[in-house]
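Researcher: Sequence recovery benchmark, item below. Answer with residues only.
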């Protein structure tokens, strides 16, 4: 047919009209064909299903619904038939008039002039609401904002509202850096009926004389207990439990009291609770941010403990280096951990670092990391030192307390008169804890108007905890 030339004359003789092809199933192949009667029947069935509200069309037929449904044109609504012009806009209108500040242009200008004359930029809360976002450094590491989310702050205020006694856990290496001034001011201003106790945790990482000085310095504001969180061999547990019993005795009108533990991340809040219970009831780890939500723990029938996630209380004087060295950021998640090593080198003696890592002298922080990388075998391809990995190792050792470091409290006249012989005795801490407990007991007795010269009796069902106190006190005296 294609090889022959077309005969145009015969084609012109044919009558013009639509060409038709005879219907044959072989032309369609493996397809489904429907008769017009079947389509009409399906349309009627579908219409019945739509009208009945108790029937639901679950499975569609193996055909396009466009063949069954009629795409009828929507009729335009005549507004004048629904609401006439007279009832809408005329004097007989029944439509409600919208409430506007001004119904003409003159009144609107008068209100604008009046608002401008009475405007005070100091009271405009929306004027500087985006300044913090604009001032945020786009190149700053996002992990430095850890512990400052809205969710964690909500958990903190839940614990504060639910607690009768708040135990602020401090890191003994840097108590002032991990002190929660925001919580103290909030309680003094809004919750003066709540008690505050300072727990100087990790006191085994600093010398005994330094811990003794810190206790005497912090005890001027609140009762302070030196503590070592350990399930097997804790220090200060007996004095701490005795102090909690005194607070419970002060709140005899209540069925029970709640003791909340707050503080910075990685100060040991969960570890203190585990040591009081002598079992692992809270998830604890030597890295910050392990506790995600608050949780209740039963100590006795009348004393409940509340664990709280660590919150970072930002300060204008704190730099990025201070935030990292406080241990509130996970070292493995920092983008460039080697930039914070110089802070450790400035605070720690070089002889202590040489003895810890078994290296010689160094020139700067990069040389320091290079020596550790060669000593530990942390090398990249070509024998180059893996500085970033070594920097994470050093920061992790800093957070765990393997690198010796501590700060001293501001000097006072009482501390200058102390003798050095008593400072080197571990029993001084135990005696100081007992002295703090006795002072707090006298204060509570004055408030109650009672003369409780003896230690309050143990509670019902608390014989086990009483035995634990005696054991801890004996251990402290033996140490």
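Model:
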């Amino acid at each position: 047919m294609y090889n022959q030339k077309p005969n145009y004359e015969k084609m012109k003789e044919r009558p013009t009209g639509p060409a038709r092809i005879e219907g044959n199933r072989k032309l369609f192949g493996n397809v489904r064909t429907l008769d017009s009667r079947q389509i009409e029947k399906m349309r009627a069935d579908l219409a019945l299903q739509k009208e009945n509200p108790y029937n639901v069309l679950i499975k569609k037929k193996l055909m396009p619904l466009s063949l069954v449904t009629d795409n009828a044109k929507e009729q335009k609504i005549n507004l004048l038939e629904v609401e006439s012009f007279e009832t809408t806009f005329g004097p007989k209108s029944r439509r409600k008039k919208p409430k506007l500040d001004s119904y003409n242009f003159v009144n609107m200008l008068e209100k604008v002039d009046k608002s401008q004359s009475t405007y005070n930029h100091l009271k405009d809360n929306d004027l500087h609401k985006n300044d913090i976002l604009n001032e945020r450094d786009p190149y700053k590491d996002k992990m430095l904002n850890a512990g400052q989310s809205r969710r964690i702050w909500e958990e903190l205020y839940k614990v504060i509202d639910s607690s009768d006694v708040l135990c602020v856990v401090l890191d003994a290496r840097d108590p002032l850096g991990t002190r929660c001034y925001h919580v103290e001011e909030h309680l003094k201003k809004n919750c003066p009926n709540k008690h505050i106790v300072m727990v100087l945790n990790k006191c085994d990482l600093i010398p005994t004389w330094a811990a003794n000085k810190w206790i005497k310095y912090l005890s001027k504001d609140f009762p302070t207990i030196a503590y070592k969180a350990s399930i097997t061999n804790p220090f200060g547990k007996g004095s701490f439990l005795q102090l909690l019993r005194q607070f419970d005795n002060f709140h005899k009108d209540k069925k029970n009291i709640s003791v909340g533990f707050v503080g910075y991340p990685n100060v040991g809040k969960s570890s203190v609770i585990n040591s009081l219970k002598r079992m692992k009831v809270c998830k604890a780890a030597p890295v910050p941010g392990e506790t995600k939500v608050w949780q209740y723990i039963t100590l006795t029938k009348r004393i409940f403990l509340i664990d709280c996630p660590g919150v970072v209380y930002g300060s204008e004087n704190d730099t990025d280096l201070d935030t990292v060295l406080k241990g509130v950021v996970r070292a493995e998640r920092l983008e460039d951990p080697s930039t914070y090593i110089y802070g450790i080198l400035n605070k720690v003696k070089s002889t202590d670092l040489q003895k810890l890592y078994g290296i010689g002298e160094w020139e700067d922080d990069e040389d320091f990391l290079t020596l550790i990388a060669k000593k530990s075998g942390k090398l990249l391809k070509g024998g180059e030192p893996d500085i970033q990995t070594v920097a994470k190792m050093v920061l992790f050792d800093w957070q765990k307390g393997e690198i010796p470091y501590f700060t001293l409290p501001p000097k006072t006249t009482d501390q200058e008169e102390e003798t050095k012989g008593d400072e080197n005795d571990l029993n001084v801490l135990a005696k100081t804890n007992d002295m703090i407990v006795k002072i707090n007991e006298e204060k509570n007795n004055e408030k109650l108007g009672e003369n409780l010269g003896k230690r309050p009796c143990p509670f019902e069902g608390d014989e086990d905890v009483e035995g634990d106190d005696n054991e801890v006190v004996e251990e402290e005296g033996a140490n």
